[in-house]
Amino acid sequence: MKQILLIEDETGIAQTICVQLQLFGFEVTPAQNAQTALEQIRQTSFNVIILDWMLPDEDGPQLIPKIRQMTKAPVLMLTARSEIIDKIMGFEAGADDYLTKPFDMMELIARIKALIRRTEQQDDSQKQHALIYEGISLYLDMRRVEVDGKEIELTPTEFKILEIMIQKPGVVFSRNELIELVLGYDYDGYGRTLDSHFARLRNKIELDPKSPRYIKTIFGIGYKLGG
Ligand code: CA
Question: What stretches in the chain show pLDDT beneath 50?
Answer without folding.
Answer: none
